[in-house]
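Hey all, sorry for the wall of text incoming. These are the two entities for the joint prediction.
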Amino acid sequence: MIFRRILVANRGEIAVRIIRTCERLGIETILAASEADLHSMAARMADSVICIGPASSAVSYLSVDPVVAAALAAKVDAIHPGYGFLSENPRLAAACESAGIVFIGPTVRQLEAVGDKLNARAHAIAAGLPVFPGGEVRTFDEAYQLAAQIGMPVLIKSVGGGGGRGMKLVHDSSKLASALELAMSEAQATFGDPRVYLERFAAGSRHIEVQVLGDGENVIHLGTRDCSVQRRYQKLVEEAPAPSISDRLREILHRSAVAFAKHLRYRGLGTVEFLVDGDREAFYFLEMNARIQVEHPVTEAICGLDLVEEQICIAQQARLRWKQNDIAFNGHALECRINAEDWAHDFRPSPGTISRAAFPVGPGTRVDTHIQPDAAVPAFYDSLLAKLIIHGENRAAALHELRRALVSCEIGGITTNLPMYTALLANDEYSGSPVDTAFLQRFLEHRATHAA
Amino acid sequence: MKLTNEDVQEILQLLDATRFDELHLETSRFKLTLKRNSGSGRWTQEMQHLAEPNLIHGESAPPAKPASVSAANSADSSQSESLAIRAHLPGTFYRAPRPGAPPFVEVGSRVENGTVVGIIETMKLMNAVHAEASGEIAEICCENARFAEKGTVLMRLKPTLL
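and here's what came out:
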């Protein structure tokens, strides 16, 4: 089947990103937009726009029925769900199936297999991947017993969560009961599922993930990404390939991610996430993300593929176009997430209207954005404004170029976290050696104490 | 015809070989400005897509009647002896810590300076709203789960007289 028309069921920079690839492929785009986004950049670029509901995402972007109704009304062949919102929701995939519309993503069963994080853990064990000691806990007693077994500190995670949402780090077993109670009620409120599990927490590890692409039978990998620069488990800087790990460990990570995806007979684009202790050459499975990710452009930069196009091809032809040997990696890429946040005031969100948006342009520089003069940055959605992606010969060259490119970014009308990146890239620890997931917090605290 | 990122790169290559430092291009669909920094020789771009969105099935979308409370329409209270508790950020106002939980405060609740009286959700972040004096909640001016502009009066507080 060849797609003539696709419904883009998302907003912001990823909607713009998907529309650009569709334009290049000659596929007509219909944007499913909320009332707050009817004049967004994506709405101006799409061939048509359908309003799917009010600004609040619970009744628009997170609601299956209006999205499917829009797809049927527009007579599209397929839905691209982007990331976040309904992208990993098995109910949307199932509704597409019954409506005869292709869901550009994995199967309903695969979404269920990785969306339930305990289920994903069991699949990882079955596929032979190492996981952190841990498991489900239903009562305080179970939690104390398990914590005593695996040792403090522990992380409490939501079974229905993922992506760092709803995680609680507990250092002291006397705080375990209250943290568990809070985690369960928050999990119920946020994910509609109160189940939680404990895992041992390893300080000093790096977040490294492997991009995979499968067609249900064959699976290839598109290399590693390091996303250790995080604040409150949200990624801010990503790079590909993961720097400073041994070739042996990199190869094992690639093979483990492919083994996991093959075990699921995975179809589509996905990411297998690991926590890695580079010194001990140890790694642990975290979770799999069954969608395109925010940080996908760094992978595109080093492997030369358009991952949205690959998603569309697999959904159309049900076959991988490439073998592992066809994939070659070239250079090093870095990405900064430019957010509407005031880093000088505890990352306070800064919604508003854009007055000016100037970005660097030139070879090796890419900016994925949805902001332009007069564009609204609504308070209803996340704060991502733009992604600045730099591709260089090697890490040092890419870092050098990134420092210069940051100077060329000028965003007016709202406050952004751009100054944080300038400060971060001047930091020797970041530029020199690979950093762990606690690095950014240390960096921010250090600055706060020295500024005071 | 639409302007792609590849087109911009091509224009830039042509421009790079000239002595021009600025290009302004405007059509009915887009506005593009390319500028060369005199010092570094590097280019920046400012792009604006101007095409009006092609909205289909408009009948399913009622004209956007914002379900929000603005700063102006709640500020007309004559209770001059009360203190306004305002939204410090634009966002969705919640009276309780989570759905189904009891509200932080009701009319008549005693609060201290710093007591959390509500939450404003802005860009997926929950921000606590604090009372800025001790006293008693006199009025709740914003409904739960309503969008509030920055500066909207959420509640009125009758301060304790010292």
